[in-house]
Amino acid sequence: MKEFWPYLKMLRPVKWHFTGAIFAGIIYGLASGFGLPFVTSEVFPIIFNQAEYAHFSKEARDVLTHEQMQQMTDEMGEVITTEQRKELGWDKDQGTSFWILILAVAILPASFAVRGLSAFANTYLINYCGVRVLEKIRCMIFSKLQVLPLSFFQKNQSGELVSRVVVDTTQLQNGIIFVANDLVKQPVTFVGAIGALIYLSLRESDLAFILLCLLTIPVAVLPIRYVGRKMLKKARLMQDESGDLTGILSENLSAPREVRAFNLKEREEKRFFNSVRRLFAHQMKVVKYANMLSPLIEFISAVGIAIAIYFAARRGVTLEQIVPLIFALYMSYEPVKKLGMIHNRVSQATASLERIEYILDAPIEVPEPEDPKPFHIDVGAIQFDHVSFSYDKSPTLKNVDLTIEGGQVVALVGPSGAGKSTFANLVSRFYDVQGGALRIDGRDIREVEKKALYDSIALVSQDPVLFNDTVIENIRIGRLDATREEIEEAARNAFAHEFIVDLDNGYETIVGEKGTRLSGGQKQRIALARAFLRNAPILILDEATSALDTESEQKIQQALDKLLPGKTAIVIAHRFSTIRSAERVLVFDDGRIIADGPHSEVYQTCPLYKDLYDKQA
Ligand SMILES: Nc1ncnc2c1ncn2[C@@H]1O[C@H](COP(=O)(O)OP(=O)(O)OP(=O)(O)O)[C@@H](O)[C@H]1O
Ligand SMILES: [Mg+2]
Predict the structure, then answer these.
(1) Domain of 582?
(2) Is the CB–ligand 1 distance for residue 421 below 6 Å?
(3) How do 409-413 and 568-572 pair as beta strands?
(4) Which CDD domains does the record cross-reference, listed alphabetically (predicted)?
(5) Looking at the domain assignment, is residue 365 inside a domain?
């Protein structure tokens, strides 16, 4: 339960709804816990005694049975005269008892009306609060996902995360609603019913034994605790498996081509079906524990009530005396049962909350500086000051020490896995350096506002991601406030305009998820158009390794020739043409920079570079 406390403060914006819900819950609880037993104890006697035997005193009515009172009434009716009857008020009594009867029977529906209305108000309002809080939690998770470090997404499968955002929040929401429905009503009902019990048994002190029956209630706490613990464990397993299932599904959906080309149907089915089977097993465990509690507690309460009936029978208590008490007794067991089920649902919801908090509490490894300084690029000089970095244990970059002057175009060359992409990623601050420092225009990038840093860098990645939107919106990502003219201009500069206007709907063509309706070369030119639009002083370009047709390649080269001048550019170069247009070449080998200089010089001095370059030629 305590896991939920931190979220209570989220109720602040809905405090009036919440207060209203609690108020309605209290009315409901009083109406059912205290009201119903009270009505049966006060009203039923009126209906069944008062009307017929009002001429007997209360004391007489308590001792005499119906038969006795009937017999005495008959006998007396034969001896007294009509005048005497009037004097005694027998006939008048018949008249008033009609109205008392009407009033008495009306109390029952009236108290149910109060109970029903307050139950509705309570449920509606508390649901409102629960759903609002959930909506907020969902948005919090989403916002958190926007700032988590890249490493988080490398550690966690996207499908698994989707499951946490969608399935676990839904589970949590169902739990909250279920719990909220009864959270106020049941404890109040319980207190009300106990109050009624005490009231009734104090009024007739020989009934006080009934309070002893309440001693069975603590016994019910044992199964509640046991089942709750089991529930938490099983719900955790269930939700984890459900996350795995979504993970498998989303991975599969992202690779329909591979599934067909490599004949993966059986392999994928096996993975999915097995997960479905495991999920079924965990689900049934949850179903088992969810439904075990209620019969258990009902049994315990039946024992309590049986004990009450036993004692009542031994003491010769009358039916109309015992019925309200049994009613009150039942009304005090019922909330215990409901609270037990609440505990169960809370355990289940806790499992989902834990999975949600996994995201909410994940550390932001690349934090915003405490005192972010405004940042404006002057020349765009990038200094690696004895930088080292590793993803896990083995170092990926070892003591890299160099400065890229403002406006310089640098080509990074080296074997696969040498650390080129890592070097570029550090400039964008996707990761923080672990040794040394990285400065732009003399400012440590850990000290500047992240947004300002991101704003000053344009990134063209190896495999650009397009959103399932129109071409124009996909280019606009480069700068969200760009006008249509600016976007078209950027597309022209990136040699993308021609192919765009040839598309079915021109700039309004939807590119499909991840841009699947465009060719590789077209996607890269869209990415370049974004970079033109962004016009940031620093450009990072991770060139695609996949070979492009000569025409695309030429166009991209022409675009780069226009884009690069005046910018500090780090180009991970796989193509000759790009390498040649760079003023400076950095040769990477196993996390170190083994050569640094203009192409002609490095070609002479670095055998590794000569080798790589010649192989391409
Ligand atoms: N997210 C990561 N987690 C762990 N290790 C990583 C991660 N990314 C890269 N590495 C490792 O770091 C090393 C350098 O990788 P990097 O991507 O920088 O190489 P690269 O020079 O860009 O290679 P390529 O030319 O193939 O793109 C490699 O050994 C790689 O396995
Ligand atoms: Mg790379």
Answers:
(1) 382-616
(2) yes
(3) parallel
(4) ABC_6TM_MsbA_like
(5) no
